[in-house]
Structures are given as structure tokens and as C-alpha cells.
Amino acid sequence: MSEFRKDPIVARWVIIAKERGKRPTDFVIEEEKTTGGFCPLCEGNEHTTPPEVLSYGRPGYAPNMPGWKLRVVPNKFPALVVEGNLNKRGEGMFDEMNGIGAHEVIIETPRHGEVMATMTSEQISLIFQAYRDRMADLARDMRFRYIIIFKNFGRAAGASLEHSHSQLIALPIVPYLIQEEIDSAHRYFTYKDRCVFCDIIHQEQSQGVRVVCENAEFITICPFAPRAPFEMWVLPKRHKSDYVALDDQGRRLLSDLFLETMRRLDKALPRVPYNFMLHTAPIRTPDLEHYHWHIEILPKLTMVAGFEWGTGFYINPTPPEEAASFLREIRLDR
Asked: What is the pLDDT of residue 37?
């Protein structure tokens, strides 16, 4: 029988359609043919992107030239522009402001065709370091209130370029979904005097059925009420609300676990399209005792259609306990 499940953080309901139960082999993932031809993100094509705002290079590397390990450049077709004033204003009952923000592309590797599941932990660590460095730099701009990091992998998940990359957008407002998550976590803390994310981690560790993998500092779980089949969350075990506060040792451990997580996903569902999002506290917010930064990974395996848009419910044909068990039992080559 199907189940309604309620997310304990934002009170979002999902339907776990057990009678439709699907394992990884039941999902049809369309093979994406490489387009070939010119790629502006490849090493040697630096002149085709805007000048980099951050890069990590090999010895002797010169900016905006070959020899880099990772580059961050402004998006050539930005959703928001960094120049100008917000100019907040009203039009009768409606509010508006100028489209001010920052939109950047993190080019994760110089090698075309390399994906996160095939990278080394050191390369993943550079990516997480770039997130931290760019977020810290942009936080100095008092116009910005929130920075979202996200990755679209595969055309079905919204990627317009094959070359492995993620994106950063600095916003002058805190997104509604993030504020809802923070407010809901605060209500839980007010009632129980505990962080809801910490409670989730403790319960998942004690039960074990939705844990995918873990190390000394981080854990990957399939959440109790997942929106998508094989949805996973990566969380720090120690309470921290701000990703930028992650130290070098923590970043290395995060990279190790994140790489294992992506390798398990790729083994279960080879080259599955996915999105991931980094959820963290708003800029310049003191450490929040009720909120916990984390990464959400959502494979693109189901369609969001009329029922989902009309109700806000999601229908998921794969119980998270089965997804976690399958991912956990995968044998990885060392």
C-alpha cells in the first residue's frame, strides 16, 4: 500500500508509491550522445569565457591561460548582473527591484568528459574549496543576502554544457524555500530545544536503514520523505549552520564522502541526470543553533507534472529504505 510521508523539517508531504516500487534497473535513463565540437570550458579555450575571478593552477600557471586545475568565471549569460543598485520600489501592491546579483560558473576540471564520479578526492576538495572561497568573497558585498551553489548534470536536469561544472548565484534576498527551511527548523528548536537536523542524523545512525555511507565527520542518507527516487542528503555530523566555516580538514573528509556518494549513485544508475544544491545559512548570519548546512542530491528520474504543481506533493516510486540499501551494498573498486 502507498504511504504518505511528512518531511520533519518543512512539513512537506510526499507519496511513497510502493506498489509501483522501482529498483535502479527499472528506470530508463536515456543515453546522452556527446555533441563533440567546440567546448568553451575546456583547457585551451580560456579566451572564450569572461576573465576568471578565481583559479587554482599547476606550478607556473598564468591566469586565463592553460595549466589550471579549476576555474571560476562569470556566467556569459547571467540571470542577474553585478553592476548597479537594487532600487527597491513598489507598483501599487506589488514589489520589485533591479536584477542585481552575481552569477558564476565553477569549471570543475580541465578535462572534457570527466564527471564527479570519476574524479579524485583531491579534485572534489578543490571544488568545495572554490565554493567556500567565492562565497566568502561575495559575502563582503552588502547588497547580497544569500548565495546558492547548485549543479545540473545532464540535459534532463537542465545542463546546457556537457563539461563538468557547477554554478553560483548571489541574491539580494533569501529564497523562500531556504527561509521556510530555516523557520521550520527554528520552530522545532523552540519546541524541543534541539536541532532537527542533528536529531535526524542521530535517528538515522541508530536505525541504519536509510544510511548510505559515512565517515568520522559526515554522513549520507536517503531522507525519510524523499521527493525523488534515490534522493540523498550529505550532512556534517557536527552542528554548523554556515558552510563557509568548514575548515580544511573538514573539507577533505567531506570530499572523501561526497566522492563515495557520487560513485555509488553512478554505479547504481550510470550517468543518471541529477541536481544538487548546497543549503547554508544566509550571509552574515551568526551561527544558528537551529539550522544545519547540508547538500541535497536529487536524481532526475520522475516527472513533475500537474498533480505535483497543483498540490505541492511529490510521488516517489522507490522507498528510501530500499534505495539506501541498494546504494549501501554496492561494491566499489578501490
From this structure: 77
Tell me what pLDDT residue 2 has: 82
> What is 212-228 written as a DSSP string?
EEE-SSEEEE--SS-SS
β-strands 274-279, 146-153: how paired? antiparallel
Low-confidence ranges of the chain (pLDDT < 50): none
pLDDT tens digits along 131-184: 999 999 999 999 999 999 999 999 888 888 899 999 999 999 999 999 999 999
Is residue 259 a contact partner of residue 121, using CB atoms and an 8 Å limit? yes
Structural domains of the chain sorted by starting position, each given as residue range(s) with its CATH number in brackets:
3-23+42-329 (3.30.428.10)
List CB contacts of 45: < 8 A, sequence separation 6 or more.
Answer: 38, 39
| pLDDT given at position 27 | 62
- The radius of gyration of the chain's CA atoms, rounded to the nearest angstrom, is 20
Q: Is the pTM value of this prediction over 0.85? A: yes
| Helix residue ranges per DSSP H, the chain | 121-138, 176-192, 196-207, 248-268, 306-311, 320-329
Catalytic residue among 103, 163, 165, 292: 165
Cα separation, 261 vs 321, in Å, equals: 16
- Predicted pLDDT at 91: 86
Q: Which residue has the cell 527554528?
A: 186
186 is a catalytic site residue: no
Contacts of 231 (CB under 8 A, 6+ apart): 222, 223, 296, 297, 298, 299, 316, 320, 323
The Cα 145–Cα 241 span in angstroms is 15
Element holding 211 (H helix, E strand): strand 211-214
Q: Say how far apart CA 297 and CA 231 lie, in whole Å.
A: 6
Residues 6+ apart with CB under 8 A from 274: 151, 153, 154, 157, 265, 297, 298, 299, 300
Query: Using CA of residue 64, residue 68, residue 74, residue 76, what is the dihedral sign?
Result: positive
User: What sign has the CA pseudo-torsion 49, 50, 55, 61?
Assistant: positive
Query: What's the pLDDT score for residue 73?
Result: 97
